[in-house]
């Protein structure tokens, strides 16, 4: 009897949170899905059934093609760059570096900054102006005699998204560093010592022992960074504003919904983003739950 009472009290305690999640997450997802299948355009709600026509129009839209291409470029540079830089920083800190606590905090500090602040700072650092208006990194390259490294950064037609990804790498590489450092510290030192006795050098140890053991960490970083890159919005707007060459689905969704008042098409973009993120997150959750069950 007492156990049933405790169970009832526990359910009663968490029920407001469950209700709030159901309403403000799942109910609104369902509502957005319904809007994406409607002809709603304008301030007055119009739920007239439109089927998947909004989705068909999107996939035929040249602007949406640009959005997908930009997102893939940004994701590739951002994810690979953050993982590589984070791993290198973690390896450096794992060597018993003096002042490790200071450097660890220094590398993690950018993560505490919002993308808006990061974008404002990097907009100045990547100022594409030349001549007397040169500033930021281009001015630094000029002082160092490295004029060949000066470029137009995010205004470059082809690689503008890659330049913006540099700011995201700066912000999130500290996070991947923390993940890898925790993973390195969890690996028994006996494995490394045994490999050294067998004649393996540091490069071979990290390549054949450390990296395979860190594969779960790499997978986690890949999923987390990947889903963040698919939703990128504020960083691009803070650095370059709303420009078609640097357009991504989130910016397109904002403009077509709140500027163009085409709520049906905007909701369709939102659902596509949701499915894209779920495509990354759900397999990872299943893998994690399966691993925990086996252990």
Explain this structure to me?
74% of the residues lie in helices and 0% in strands. It has one domain (63-294): MetI-like (MetI-like fold), CATH 1.10.3720. The relative contact order is 0.13. The protein starts with a helix and ends with a helix. The protein is mainly α. The mean pLDDT is 88. Helix 5 crosses helix 7.
Cα radius of gyration in angstroms: 24 Å
| Helix count from the secondary structure assignment | 13
Strand content: under 5%
Distance from N terminus to C terminus (CA atoms, Å) equals 34 Å
- Unreliable spans: none
The name of the CATH superfamily reads MetI-like
Q: Sheet with the most strands? A: none
Helix content: over 70%
The CATH architecture: Orthogonal Bundle
CATH class wording: Mainly Alpha
Total beta-strand segments: 0
Quick structural gist:
With 295 residues, the protein is mainly alpha-helical. The protein has helices at 2-36, 53-60, 62-93, 100-108, 115-125, 136-143, 160-186, 189-197, 202-213, 215-230, 234-240, 249-259, 263-294.
Helix and strand layout, with pairings?
Layout lengths: L1 H35 L16 H8 L1 H32 L6 H9 L6 H11 L10 H8 L16 H27 L2 H9 L4 H12 L1 H16 L3 H7 L8 H11 L3 H32 L1
What key attributes describe this structure?
295 residues, mainly alpha, MetI-like fold, 74% helix, 0% strand
């Amino acid at each position: 009897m007492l156990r049933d009472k405790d169970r009832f009290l526990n359910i009663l305690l968490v029920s407001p949170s469950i209700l709030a999640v159901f309403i403000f997450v799942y109910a609104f997802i369902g509502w957005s899905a319904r809007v994406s299948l409607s002809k709603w355009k304008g301030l007055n709600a119009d739920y007239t059934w439109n089927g998947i026509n909004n989705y068909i129009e999107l996939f035929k839209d040249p602007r949406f093609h640009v959005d997908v291409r930009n997102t893939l470029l940004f994701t590739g540079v951002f994810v690979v760059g953050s993982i590589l830089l984070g791993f290198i920083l973690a390896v450096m800190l794992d060597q018993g570096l003096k002042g490790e606590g200071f450097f660890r905090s220094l590398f993690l500090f950018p993560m505490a900054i919002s993308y808006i602040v990061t974008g404002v700072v990097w907009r100045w650092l990547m100022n594409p102006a030349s001549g007397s208006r040169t500033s930021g990194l281009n001015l630094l390259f000029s002082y160092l005699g490295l004029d060949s490294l000066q470029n137009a950064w995010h205004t470059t037609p082809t690689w503008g998204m890659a330049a913006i990804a540099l700011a995201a790498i700066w912000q999130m590489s500290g996070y991947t560093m923390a993940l890898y450092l925790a993973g390195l510290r969890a690996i028994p030192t006996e494995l490394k010592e045994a490999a050294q006795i067998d004649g393996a050098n540091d490069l071979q140890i990290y390549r054949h022992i450390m990296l395979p053991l860190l594969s779960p960490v790499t997978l986690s970083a890949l999923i987390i960074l990947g889903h963040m890159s698919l939703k990128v919005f504020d960083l691009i707007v803070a650095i370059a504003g709303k420009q078609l060459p640097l357009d991504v689905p989130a910016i397109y969704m904002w403009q077509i919904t709140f500027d163009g008042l085409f709520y049906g098409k905007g909701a369709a973009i939102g659902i596509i983003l949701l499915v894209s993120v779920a495509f990354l997150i759900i397999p990872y959750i299943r893998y994690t739950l399966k691993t925990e069950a086996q252990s």
